[in-house]
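Need the bound structure for iron/sulfur cluster, inputs here:
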Amino acid sequence: MDFQKQKKILVHTCCAPCSGYCFEKLVNDGYEIAGYFYNPNIHPEPEYKKRLGELARYSEQMNFQVLIEEEPPELWFDAIKGLEQEKEGGKRCEACFKVRLEKTALFAKKNGFDGFTTVLTISPHKNSAVINQIGKKIAKKYEIGFLEENFKKHDGFKKSLELSDKYGFYRQNYCGCVYSKKK
Ligand code: SF4
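Answer from helper R.:
Posting the output first, comments after.
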């Protein structure tokens, strides 16, 4: 499904440092956005709360709406079962992207959004092509728009670091799940 500007999109978000540049870019690009925090992968709970708290602080300050979806982490562990020992960037991450994007698409569909996207492509550790492929497949399944993005482009990651400094965001040093923390 083609995506045009002036559309209302739900933006899957994982934390404030990844969201700052992406949210501001999307608004500057002409989209009406709402953030959607759904990350049952983040471990342990105090870290989950810290990331969510930083995002809430930033979105309040900037007047961005952020919707929060919470679910027991067991469902995420079920979704990545058998892939626990995969390297970061491998099949476990694909399953993790799928879980989070599928929930985002469903929420978007049920709540009158024209489509969805994710800030995950800002990370230099994540393959944007893989994320976009998964997003497009899910969009097709649920008949909703998916905005393909590669937020790393045009110095996106560098700009996200500058915004993190500007707003004093807490920046985590691991992706999120218990397996990425072990390294
Ligand atoms: S490393 Fe990151 S993307 Fe990969 S499974 Fe863990 S939390 Fe998900």
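Comments: The domain at 8-182 is CATH 3.40.50.620 (Rossmann fold). The longest strand covers residues 8-13.
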